[in-house]
Specification:
Elements lengths: L14 H12 L4 E11 L6 E9 L2 E6 L7 E6 L4 E4 L1 E6 L8 H8 L4 E6 L2 H7 L1 H11 L5 E6 L18 H8 L4 E7 L2 H5 L3 H13 L2 E4 L6 H9 L4 E2 L5 H10 L2 E5 L6 H11 L6 E4 L5 H7 L2 H10 L4 H8 L1 H7 L15 E4 L7 E6 L2 E5 L2 E2 L33 E8 L5 E10 L2 E2 L5 E7 L10 E6 L7 E4 L8 E5 L2 H13 L3 E6 L2 E7 L11 H18 L11 H4 L8 E4 L2 E4 L4 E3 L5
Parallel strand pairs: 1-4, 1-5, 6-7, 7-8, 8-9, 9-10, 11-12, 12-13, 18-22
Antiparallel strand pairs: 1-2, 2-3, 5-14, 14-15, 15-16, 16-17, 18-19, 19-20, 21-22, 21-24, 23-24, 23-25, 25-26, 27-28, 28-29
Helix pairs in contact: 3-4, 5-7, 9-10, 11-16, 12-13, 13-14
């Protein structure tokens, strides 16, 4: 398994480095740095014990009794803080935070996150292999270890949607040959795996042949379907829906990437883990998706740990999941443990509830103190990821559904998140369907230049009464232009604002733009500072609250970004029509 800062497992094998570390451990040479006055969190025994830690270069040379050594080039006073290995986020998408990799690193490293497992699935769905290459290149030189994975499902539902690229087994085999690629990212084509569909089976075989990680997305799978999914070679899941689902997947033997992006489920997960007693060794933690305002205000994986502790999980167990368990999942024996011979990725926390990081050490060097990076970061040039909106402006008529006669039966997409097919009767006026009361319009327009860009329109049920429209190019996972609305005029206004911005999100009401967040890099990311993007996203959220009455936990703002996730069971609107991956059904028009 590899990473991108000066911190590959092989760098610790240098003979001169080991000789120097051995001498320092014996007491025959000084340490480069010595951490004193701290409480070590022992991830093996669960103990909290006082210890000093001597570092030589990127190595931990010695963990020893407090005050027994003072010989070091530099002393780091932990100030009675708690010393933990650096936190490891086992599944995430930087693009979901809508900032560059450098900006993301600047946000999480000062909080104690030192390693992430990044699935650049969003960049890949827009730009193909060039998007993955950007991810690998952008990770270099940052004080955040990034294990980059090969996106497995580009697109996520072949034949039911069209995106900007197509990753078959040959592409995946090539990506896995890159030394920077740590494995295959979440396999989302669940039905294809279970049916042993040739395309995804060949992709899985590429991962098996490479001997690298194969990560999963097993939402709603259980019993024989889950067994079939795992028998194909998939070893992890983060798509948990309940405490019982967590327990069943632990019993099945999956590595669990317990994610923080569905906060309403965390208390149930904590209760399940607490009933088990000892923490399962296969529990790791991940963020999956973190919006920019949440990242700015609360952080990344540190926020997940903090919330789990607040919901009743023992702090040491939460940290074990985020460090040692995660390192073992990745096959990284150099990470996740404070012990002689391991990598010096360390965090000094003020306490075990606030988890405020006093010092963050990466590869033996202090890179952040008191919540701030010590050195500025340089972002990679993004010119190659711009100009991704290959679509002309639209009109209100583009969001109307043609029909003949006076009344028709239409198909509806019922319920947010866990969708179901529905039918209802609708009036026809001037040759188009009149949206029935209680429905919300959804339209998806292909924006990647590979197909007809005219919007495909559907009707949502259970999405409330919309008093305006929302347009977004952040639309999992093909990231086409998706528009929701209560009327066609506002939908056109919002869509055209996003097209003109080169991608992003817009809220329209009464024919005017209420909020606009430009995301010109791939239609997913801004090059502005996290503070600026977070502010813009907060304004967008506020504007959305004025046009929709949310009904948590499922009818929430976040549901807008997953409404086109066609790999999940049930009907979903795509740029090809209304698609159902379970049955293979595809309706180009909702008129039945």
């Amino acid at each position: 398994m590899t990473s991108h800062i000066a911190g590959e497992p092989s760098d610790l094998h240098d003979e001169h480095l080991r000789t120097k570390a051995v001498a320092a451990a014996r007491g025959d040479a000084p340490f480069d740095r010595l951490i004193v006055n701290g409480v070590l969190i022992d991830m093996v025994t669960g103990e909290q014990r006082r210890a000093d830690i001597g570092l030589v270069g990127p190595l931990i040379a010695s963990v020893h009794a407090p005050g027994s050594r003072t010989d070091a080039m530099e002393l780091i006073d932990a100030g009675n803080g708690y010393i933990s290995p650096g936190l490891i986020d086992t599944h995430m998408h930087i693009e979901s935070s809508m900032v560059t990799p450098a900006a993301y690193a600047g946000a999480v490293v000062p909080r104690g996150v030192t390693t992430i497992v990044w699935d650049p699935h969003e960049f890949a769905n827009v730009h193909g292999v060039a998007g993955v290459r950007f991810a690998v290149d952008a990770a270099r030189g940052l004080p955040l270890r990034m294990v980059v994975l090969a996106p497995s499902c580009v697109p996520s539902a072949p034949g039911l949607e069209l995106n900007g690229a197509d990753f078959d087994a040959d592409v995946i085999t090539d990506l896995l040959s890159w030394p920077e690629i740590g494995g295959i990212a979440e396999v989302m084509t669940m039905q294809g795996v279970i049916d042993r569909e040739p395309r995804i089976s060949a992709i899985l075989q590429s991962g098996l042949d490479a001997g690298k990680l194969i990560c999963g997305h097993a939402r709603g799978l259980g019993e024989n379907r889950l067994a079939a999914f795992m028998a194909a070679g998939i070893t992890s899941d983060h798509e948990l829906t309940s405490g019982e689902d967590l327990l069943q997947k632990l019993r099945a033997g999956l590595s669990i990437e317990l994610r923080g992006s569905h906060d309403h489920l965390l208390p149930e997960f904590v209760a399940t883990l607490n009933r088990l007693g000892p923490l399962p060794q296969t529990i790791t933690l991940c963020t999956d998706d973190v919006f920019p305002d949440d990242l700015h205000e609360r952080g990344g994986l540190d926020d997940v740990v903090r919330r789990l502790v607040a919901y009743g999980l023992d702090p040491v167990k939460a940290l074990q999941a985020a460090t040692l368990n995660a390192a073992r999942r990745l096959g990284r024996e150099d990470l996740g443990l404070i012990a002689s011979g391991r990598r010096a990725d360390l965090v000094v926390f003020e306490d075990l509830r606030s988890l405020r990081a006093r010092h963050v050490i990466v590869n033996g060097k202090v890179v952040a103190a008191s919540g701030r990076l010590l050195d500025p970061l340089t972002a990679l040039e993004t010119a190659g990821l711009k100009q991704s909106m290959k679509i002309d402006p639209v009109t209100a008529d583009g969001f109307r559904v043609p029909a003949a006669g006076e009344r028709v039966r239409i198909a509806t997409i019922d319920k947010p998140r866990f969708t179901a097919w529905g039918e209802m009767e609708a009036q026809v006026r001037n040759g188009t369907v009149v949206p029935p009361d209680g429905t919300t319009l959804i339209a998806v327009a292909h924006r990647h230049g590979r197909a007809d860009p005219r919007p495909r329109v559907g009707f949502l049920l259970g999405w409330g009464q919309w008093r305006g429209a929302f347009a977004t190019t952040v639309s999992h996972d093909s990231h086409n232009l998706t528009v929701f609305g209560g009327n066609e005029e506002d939908m056109a206004v919002a869509a055209n604002a996003v097209i003109a911005a080169g991608g992003g999100m817009a809220v329209a009401r009464d024919g005017a733009i209420e909020a606009l967040l430009p995301l010109p890099v791939s239609g997913l990311v801004s090059e502005q500072s996290l503070d600026s993007v977070a502010k813009g996203f907060t304004e967008l959220r506020s504007a959305m609250d004025k046009i929709v009455d949310w009904q948590p936990p499922y009818l929430v703002f976040k549901a807008c970004f997953g409404a086109t996730l066609a790999c999940n069971a049930g009907p979903h609107q795509t740029d090809r029509g209304i698609a159902d991956v379970t049955t293979g059904r595809l309706l180009q028009t909702p008129v039945l």
